[in-house]
From TrEMBL:
Localization (cell): Membrane
Entry protein name: G-protein coupled receptors family 1 profile domain-containing protein
GO molecular function ontology, one term from the record: G protein-coupled receptor activity
Domain G-protein coupled receptors family 1 profile: 45-294
Superkingdom as given in the UniProt entry: Eukaryota
Keyword field contains Amino-acid biosynthesis: no
Lineage of the organism: Eukaryota, Metazoa, Chordata, Craniata, Vertebrata
Organism, as annotated: Chrysemys picta bellii (Western painted turtle)
This protein's UniProt keywords: G-protein coupled receptor, Membrane, Olfaction, Receptor, Sensory transduction, Transducer, Transmembrane, Transmembrane helix
GO process terms (BP): cellular response to lipid
Membrane topology: Multi-pass membrane protein
A Pfam cross-reference name: 7tm_4
Length: 321
């Protein structure tokens, strides 16, 4: 029997189902606890960084301006992803509409692109501070930083992704393997030819994170060349020390993402659980760890943070009295 167009259209998917840990539903409540902690610590940590930098004029330097941009991006990533994850684990709220899914993946990919771009700007900042320390303030003026921030206009590269997905009808299994939406997985649910989406997805990945990572690598080659020319051993170590926080941020961001890409490309026999965990690490660990890394390594920032918490403790103690 040939189905009518009306009957066939009823078979199209109207919602996606998000997945927690398949087969682990009986411990979803316990699994949600680490996600809650990550969420709270990410929000508090990045908010404190922003508050300290905004209220302390001595921190209105290029490095800290870039750090505040990184903190805003990390806040956006946490707010975009973790509430949806908690809904899946805590309340078994697995359904997500197509439009909501497209919106979420747009923000996930855009904010990831922002983070990659900020890490590139910070690499340039580290190059300037090591190659021209005496002219650092005159080179990286607020006007130049604002012009460098125009890199975010390149969000137009990500903008077509949800529209390319929206033109499809979805008639395959509607269960996603994560508790959030990403382009590479959603497009595979489509009934139609997805060649354009595959090519455009690869293009955006190469043009954003691929190009950024290459330029970051070249920046550090130039930094290393500059640092190796320093005769004094102490100055050599001091110069390298200025880059440690940024190198940690780069490793936290790119290592899980690259590992996940390699598994998707070459590890077809790998455990689905490993892919799920790497997916969570690539999106949730940088917003959690970046404030900690920069707070530990920056004496000025650490001192201000300690002072803020001491003042809060003293005010709360006086209020109780």
């Amino acid at each position: 029997m040939i189905l009518s167009p009306e009957a066939f259209s009823n078979n199209y998917i109207q919602i996606f189902l998000l997945t927690g840990q398949p087969g682990w539903e009986y411990v979803h409540l316990w699994i949600s606890i680490p996600f809650c902690l990550v969420y709270v610590l990410s929000i508090v940590g990045n908010s404190v960084i922003l508050f300290i930098i905004k209220t302390d004029p001595s921190l209105h330097e290029p490095m800290y301006i870039f750090l505040s941009m990184l903190a805003i991006t990390d806040l956006g990533i946490s707010i975009t992803i973790i509430p949806r994850i908690l809904g899946t684990y805590l309340f078994n709220s697995r359904e997500i509409s197509l439009d909501a899914c497209f919106a979420q993946l747009f923000f996930i990919h855009s904010l990831s692109f922002f983070e990659s771009s900020i890490l590139l700007l910070m690499a340039f900042d580290r190059f300037v501070v090591n190659s021209n320390p005496l002219r650092y303030a005159s080179i990286l003026t607020l006007l130049r930083i604002a012009k460098m921030g125009l890199v975010f206009v390149a969000i137009v590269i990500i903008l077509p992704l949800p529209f390319l997905l929206k033109r499809f009808q979805y008639c395959r299994a509607n269960v996603l393997s994560h508790s959030y939406c990403v382009h590479a997985e959603v497009m595979n649910m489509a009934c139609s030819d997805i060649t354009v989406n595959i090519m455009y997805g690869l293009f955006t990945k190469l043009l954003t994170m691929g190009l950024d990572s290459l330029l970051i690598f070249l920046s550090y080659v130039m930094i290393l060349k500059t640092v190796l020319s320093i005769a004094s051993h102490e100055e050599f170590l001091r110069a390298l020390n200025t880059c440690i926080s940024h190198l940690c941020a780069i490793l936290l961001f790119y290592t899980p993402d690259l590992s996940l890409a390699m598994i998707h490309r070459f590890g077809n026999s790998s455990s689905p659980l490993l892919r799920i965990i790497l997916g969570y690490i690539s999106l949730l660990v940088p917003p959690l760890m970046n404030p900690i890394v920069y707070s530990v390594k920056s004496k000025h920032l650490r001192a201000r943070i300690i002072r803020v918490f001491i003042n809060l403790w003293l005010h709360s103690g006086n209020a109780n009295v």
